[in-house]
Input
Amino acid sequence: MSTKAHAGRTNPRTAAAAGRKGRTGRAAGFPTVLEDALASVPESEREGFVLGGVGDDGDGLEPALWGPGPSSAERKRAALANLRRQYQARRTVVEASLTRPEVAELLEVSEQAVLDRLKAGDLVGLKKGREWRLPSWQFHADSELGFVPGLARVSAVFAGGAVSLTEWALSPNRDLDEATPAEALAAGHVDDVVRVAQVGTAAAW
Output
């Protein structure tokens, strides 16, 4: 057969070898045979190839390709570990937060005014029993009202409550030039923070 006839074809073995040569690392536990198989499939067809490895129940992957999935006991342990982390994060946030009387004192307003700000979304808080706790990062002495602007807009698009919002607000963000969202809000960059929150929410879904 002519060389021209071979030009438009991909030899599975050659492609697999090229895929192996071009790799600089391999995910732990990822079967070599599956990597080679993926390398031999045209890129436009790889999604269908991978989907073909999903089990019929739609809840797991084909054991022959991906290995056995976690047992029900393992899933429960993982879920419990995740819940423990979330509740520990909540306790940490609560312990570092301010009470409503403390916030009223700082802002020189009534406790009812603080509650009104919470209801409007201008401030964020969480309950400990019947009492409100307000994370301290949202308060900024240099801000016009004594707290960072734009929280109502951020909360409206952020996929999470006060605990996850606090963790996110205090973490440096590369889309904000490594500033934290709390710092960016304090600097008046409300639109930027809202945009980053929207992008993060869309990515989560």
